[in-house]
Design goal:
8% of the residues lie in helices and 43% in strands. It has an 8-stranded mixed sheet. β7 and β8 (95-102) form a beta hairpin. It has helices at 50-54, 65-69, and strands at residues 2-9, 18-20, 25-27, 37-42, 57-61, 73-82, 85-92, 95-102.
């Protein structure tokens, strides 16, 4: 596992926000912040779990996202959000943790699809 960023919910509009329609979420790329902070501004009615809307999370890059979530309390199952990015969220000791699989290789248990995305 490799540390990627800390996600921080906010109600303030931030420069560089990108809207993710399906999640009803504005997000700021953590690579634009010297401390790897990913700002998250949720719209009312966002389908994302309340834990992600109200708590900070820590994100890690993993090689096999299906294996990383196996046996864990899953908040968001492996979901392909970009052609070469699949994410998932678990709850570990009441803390949201994000796993990120970068690249387009089949993840175990996904039926051979691109990072569980098909």
């Amino acid at each position: 596992m490799e540390f990627m960023h800390v996600g921080v919910p906010t109600q303030l509009k931030r420069p560089g926000e990108v809207y993710m329609e399906g999640m009803k979420l504005f997000i700021v790329d953590p690579s634009t912040n010297p401390y790897s902070v990913e700002w998250l501004r949720f719209e009312p009615g966002s389908p994302m779990p309340m834990e992600l809307q109200t708590m900070n999370h820590v994100a890690y890059k993993v090689d096999d996202i299906a294996a990383a979530v196996q046996g864990k309390k899953v908040l968001v199952p492996p979901t392909q959000v970009a052609p070469e990015l699949t994410i998932a969220f678990i709850l570990e000791d009441k803390l949201p943790i994000e796993f990120m699989q970068v690249g387009c290789q089949p993840a175990s248990g996904c039926g051979g699809g691109c990072c569980c995305g098909g």
